[in-house]
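Because showing beats explaining, we think one record worth quoting, sequence and backbone structure tokens together, and here it is:
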Amino acid sequence: MLTDLDIRKCSYDTYVGITVITSLAFQTNKKTTEHYGTNQGTSFSLPISKGHIVGFTGNYGDFLDSFGVILHA
């Protein structure tokens, strides 16, 4: 079971007037992934330390517009 998640070394940038996520990487208590995407733009991270991960959500078209984590307390 995943108990820790750190969405790290991620980035976002603007393409054709739209702010999009350009890269994602995940670190859990089990494994760290390689980057997905181009890893360019402004860096951000989303450390999660409380709750249980029950799912992921996002919005995309030609690009990944948003990404979120669904937690249960």
User: Anything to note?
Assistant: The two ends are 15 Å apart (CA to CA).
